[in-house]
Amino acid sequence: MNHLIETNIEDKRVGLRVDLNVPIENGEILNHERLSAALPTILYILKHTKKLCIISHLGRPDEGSFNDSYSLEPIRKWFEKRLNQEIPLIKTFDEVPNSLSIMENIRFFNGEKENALELSKKIAGSFDVYVMDAFATSHRKSASTYGAIVEAQEACAGLLFSKEIKSLEAALNDSKNVLSIVGGSKVSTKLNVIQNLISNSSNILVGGGIANTFLKAAGKNVGLSLVEDEMLDISKDLLRTGKIMLPKNVYVANSTQASLADLVSVDEVDDDKMILDIELNNEISSIVSCDYIIWNGPLGIFEIEQFSNGTQQLINFLENTSSKVIAGGGETIYAISKFSDINKFHYVSTAGGAFLEYLSGHKLPSIEALRLK
Ligand code: 3PG
Asked: What is the chain's mean pLDDT, rounded?
């Protein structure tokens, strides 16, 4: 795979695919982490050439027509302010200027979603070098994240993309001593992640609704807790590996509407109670020092104060551990920004779905395309 720092882009026409898919309400950007994360690559390219066109998607608009609510206009304004220069928002690859520009939402273009050859060639043909920096969209085989890389005269990974892969590879491939922490509501949506991580980790600590299914599989009474009964057999198989760490104490209540939660041992959950959060203290004290901790998924219903203890305890622990922490996934990133600061962590991926796909051991189309070059 070619990387941007090894690629000659001097005075060349560069197309840069980034992931600027951020929440916007009434034209106001609610979270600009992904915009800030795209800046180092943009600034690096601008040092070498002014002929840069930034390409991204925003949301999931219908293809083939312009839709004001998915326009990149608020993002254009944000970059104009940050870079202190005028940046036009352009609408076609027929008129890419020889100066910094932002292409309108690539998902307005016919053929983006289905990776159409015509659009891929059109994008690739507009530039001398195509830089892929949208790691968070690297699991989508679309024209701008796959076809354009394949069709490009020259293509390379941008600074963020290279950094994301390097961090994940270091944790998953190069390290022998990894603790994984997997939360979230359902075993079924994280099964591939757990199965892949189990071979790369010394232990996997489970939390959230996922822990309920494992606790039931381990023979515990979980009362009214959310459980996936169809996942019980596979959970028993995973427990037999001896690597799954279950919580010892949990927070229970009669419903998610309850204003208070009771802390009980996992052996004392009443029939009319549901587990809505876990207590992390005992588990954390048993974690011996490891090189890496990989974390995905909240450990309770962290959006509700009384069920956010486990997730907050984990975040406090991860902020202070000497292990390198790699965290990612949509809810995980949200929980970190709610209770802490992503800069306190060794590495927080910008990716949601792509992070999970990578942790699952699946091949990501953009990585595959870059490897072909
Ligand atoms: C994300 O937010 O996970 C990426 O931007 C990908 O968006 P998508 O799920 O709409 O393809």
From this structure: 95
308 in the same domain as 280: yes
- pTM equals 0.90
244 pLDDT tier (thresholds 50, 70, 90): very high
Give distance in angstroms: CA of 20 to centre of ligand 1: 10
The answer to whether residue 356 sits within a structural domain is no
Give the closest residue (by CA) to ligand 1 atom 9. 353
Q: Do residues 140 and 214 share a domain? A: no
Nearest ligand 1 atom to alpha carbon 140:
11
Please count the other Cβ atoms lying within 10 Å of the Cβ belonging to residue 326.
Answer: 25
Structure tokens at 181: 């922490």
How many angstroms separate the first and last alpha carbons of the chain? 7
Pocket of ligand 1 (CB under 6 A): 19, 21, 60, 136-137, 140, 352-353
Question: What is the rounded CA–CA span in Å between residue 324 and residue 224?
Answer: 37
The enclosing domain of 23 has a CATH number of 3.40.50.1260
Distance (angstroms) between ligand 1 centre and the Cα of 21 equals: 7
Provide the domain count of the chain: 2
